[in-house]
Write a structure and sequence with these properties.
The termini are far apart. Strands 2, 4, 5, 6, 9, 10 and 11 form a 7-stranded mixed β-sheet that branches. Strands 1-3-8-7 form a 4-stranded antiparallel β-sheet, with no helix packed on it. The mean pLDDT is 95. The chain has no helices and 11 strands. The protein is mainly β.
């Protein structure tokens, strides 16, 4: 299983970015798709996840600004990030959890929010 994350970059405060994570093979194998982020010397934290039924969960700091979605036809999960803040600067990782067995991680994409 491969997860290919993309869409990171440099954006000014208040700006927007959309992250994408494409899975090799069918995304329907996975019960939950999620985005995490990590900054140096801190633990990786959950940003948002979406279940196969479409139920979403967000970390408090992302609620109202970020939207996670999945396109089963394209085997891709997205994270639309609006009203970005410098504190959102991190490496963002895609995560896939199958119904059984080990979870999988993408390679990470860097998001930098700075003026």
């Amino acid at each position: 299983v491969q997860l290919q994350a993309s869409g990171g970059g440099l954006v000014q405060p208040g700006g927007s970015l959309r992250l994408s994570c494409a899975t090799s093979g069918s995304i329907l194998r996975f019960n939950v798709m999620a985005w995490y982020r990590q900054v140096p010397e801190k633990q990786r934290e959950l940003v948002a996840h979406i279940s196969s039924s479409g139920r979403t969960v967000y970390v408090d700091s992302a609620e109202g600004r970020f939207t996670i979605s999945r396109d089963n036809a394209k085997n891709t999960v997205y994270l639309q990030m609006n009203s970005l803040k410098p504190d959102d600067t991190a490496v963002y990782y895609c995560n896939a959890r199958p119904y059984y067995g080990q979870e999988y991680w993408g390679q990470g994409t860097l998001v930098t929010v700075s003026s």
